[in-house]
Specification:
It is built from four helices and four strands. The chain is α+β, with helices and mostly antiparallel strands and 141 residues long. Strands 2-1-4-3 form a four-stranded antiparallel β-sheet.
């Protein structure tokens, strides 16, 4: 009879079981979040390569660099990316000297993790030149 009257002990035991369940479930969620961050970095790198390949497929990328059409290049990159993706693009010559004198970006970086991709682009014009395009991407939180 005294066990039926002492309900506080039973309630504390039930609370302890729920607390343990909550703690274990939160620990399992932390690992899932870390895996999704690694996957998003891989997806950003793939997105960056696909974007540069699609711009270079019809010669637009080399043509924009040769004509120093930085605003057109910025507009083209913005149109191919989601609004939640930050980007910064820098164009280098074969000596790794930056060619763009104005920033080609969508603002300042707002995330801690930035994916950097380098892409080699060659012009098809008479004065053959090789350019290195560095594209940095990050997801805006």
């Amino acid at each position: 009879m005294s066990l039926l009257r002492n309900r506080r002990g039973q309630i504390h035991t039930i609370e302890a079981v729920f607390a343990a369940f909550l703690l274990l479930s939160s620990l399992s969620l932390i690992q899932v979040t870390q895996n999704s961050l690694e996957e998003s970095a891989g997806n950003l790198a793939t997105t960056a390569y696909n974007l540069l390949i699609s711009l270079d497929s019809d010669g637009y990328l080399a043509n924009a660099v040769e004509n120093q059409n930085w605003t057109g290049l910025k507009s083209a990159v913005q149109s191919l990316l989601a609004p939640t993706v930050w980007f910064n693009l820098t164009v280098f010559d074969e000596n790794m000297t930056a060619l763009n004198d104005v920033p080609i970006c969508s603002g300042s970086a707002v995330a801690d993790e930035v994916v950097v991709v380098n892409y080699v682009c060659a012009s098809a014009a008479r004065n053959y030149a090789v350019y290195i395009i560095r594209l940095q991407l990050s997801v805006v939180n």
